[in-house]
Specification:
- The complex is a heterodimer.
- Chain A is of the alpha/beta class.
- Chain A has a domain at 167-263: Nucleotidyltransferase, domain 5.
- Chain A has helices spanning 2-12, 59-72, 102-112, 139-150, 167-172, 214-228, 243-249, 263-271; strands spanning 16-21, 25-29, 37-41, 79-84, 89-94, 120-126, 132-138, 155-161, 180-186, 190-197, 200-208, 234-239, 253-258.
- In chain A, helix 2 packs across helix 4 (139-150) and helix 6 packs across helix 7 (243-249).
- Chain B has two domains: 1-59; 70-169, 2-Layer Sandwich (Gyrase A, domain 2).
- Helices cover 40% and strands 25% of the residues of chain B.
- Chain B is rod-shaped.
- The chains are: A alpha/beta, B alpha/beta.
Chain lengths: 276, 175
Amino acid sequence: MAITMGWLDSLYSRAVAGVAITRRRVVALGAGGSGVIATRAVPEGLVEPQPVTANVSSASQLGQIVAEALDEVSAVGSGVALLVPDLAVSTTLVAAGAGASRRELVAGLAAVLPYPMSEARTDFWRGRRGEVLGAGIRSTIVRQFEQVVEAADCRLGWVDGTSLARIPSWARSGDGPSGKEVQIQLYQAHYCLSVFDDGELTDLRVKLRAPAELAEIAREIERIPKRDGDTRPVAARMYGPGASELAAMSAVTTVDASDRDPLPEALQALVARGNP
Amino acid sequence: MRPGIYLGPRRGGLDRIVRRLAVVGVVATLAHAGWYVRTELELRELRASLEERDQLARVDVLPWTPDETRSLRHLVAVSASGAPEALAATELLSLLEDVLPESVTVVSATLTPAADDPGLVVEALASRQQDISDLEARLAAHARVERTEVLEERRSRDGSFSIRVQARLVPQAPR
C-alpha cells in the first residue's frame, strides 16, 4: 500500500520552485534544480517578522515583489515551497529518549507560543535518534505569506522556517563523523545556532543579533561544550554574512565558514523535499 | 523519517481520501482483472470440454441395426430446471428399460421430468409389427403410466416398423 501511495505521489510530483521572504529580501529559486536565483529588495517596514501580530503591512505590494521574483525564475503558476521568516516561527526541542507522547509534545510547544495553541499551525519533526523538533506559527501570520505566493498563481508546497529547512539534512548527515558539531546560520538581524551530537539535534537557538555582536556569538559557541561538560572537540560550520570573521575570532575548530547568503541553500534544501 | 517541518495548510482530508480511493480503485481493478482472467481461462476449458462432450453426444449412442436386440440411438431429456420435485431422468430411463421389448431399437426418447406433468415420448423401430405393439402395450400397462397415446405409426420402405408413442405418467405426490 505504501509503495502504491509512493508511486501515486510520484505521479502528482512536479518540479517545485521556492521562495523565501525575509525582512529585507525576497529570494526566489527556479524549479527543477535549475539553480536560478532571483532576489528582490523589500522596502523598509513592509515585512516585520515577529510571532504575534501581522508581519506584512501591504500584502499586495509584497505580492507584486514575490510575483516579479518568481517570474524571473519562470516559476509563476508552478508549485512553490515557502520559507517564512525565522522570527515568526516559535520552536521547541525535545531530547531523544524523553519518550514524549504527542500530547506532551503539543503541551511543550504550547508553552513557548506567545498566543493560544488553537491559533497556531504546528508540526513536529522527529530526528533519526528520536529527538523531536516542534515548530509553530500563528495561522494569521503564515496565511499572509501564503496568500502572497498564491496571488502569483502558484500552488503551495512545503512551508517551513528559514533556518529550520536545513536542520533535517544536517541531522541525517550525522552518520558520518561523530562528535559535537555546531551549525550557525547568520542573517542580518538574527542568527540560528544548532548543535548536533553524533548527528542528534541537541540544541536549537534563534536569536536576534546586531551586526557588531559577532564576538558575543563566538563566546556563545565556546560555552556550548563547557555547558554540556563535553571534552570532545567541537566542529563549527558557519554560513552567512560575517561567517569568516566569526570563524577567525572563534576558539573552536571551524570546519567551514562561508560569507555567502545562506538563503539560497536553505531554499534548495526545502525544494529538494519535493511535494509535501 | 519525514523530511522536515511543514507549516503549510493542513492537507486535509479530501486530498488524502481521493488518493486513498484511487489506490483502492487500482488494487480492486487489478484484483478484478486477475479474477476475470482466471475465470475466463476456466470458462474456456469448460467450453472446450463441453464441445468435446457435445461431439461425443452427437455420435449415436448405438448405431441402429435391425439385428440389435434393444438399443437407444438418441436421447433427449428435457430438464425441468428449478423444479425441486422433478423426476430424475434416470427414473424415466429405468421405466423405458422395463417396458422395452427385445428386438426393438429406441430411435429417440424425450423425457419430461416435470413433477406436475411427467412423461416421455418414445420413437422406436423394430423389424416386426408385433414388437412395436408389444412396446405400446407394455408402456400402457406399466404402473407408473397413466395413459399412452400413439402419435405416429408407420412402416418404412425397408420393411421396418416405427412408432412414436407418448406416455403420461402418474404425477408424483408432493414430498
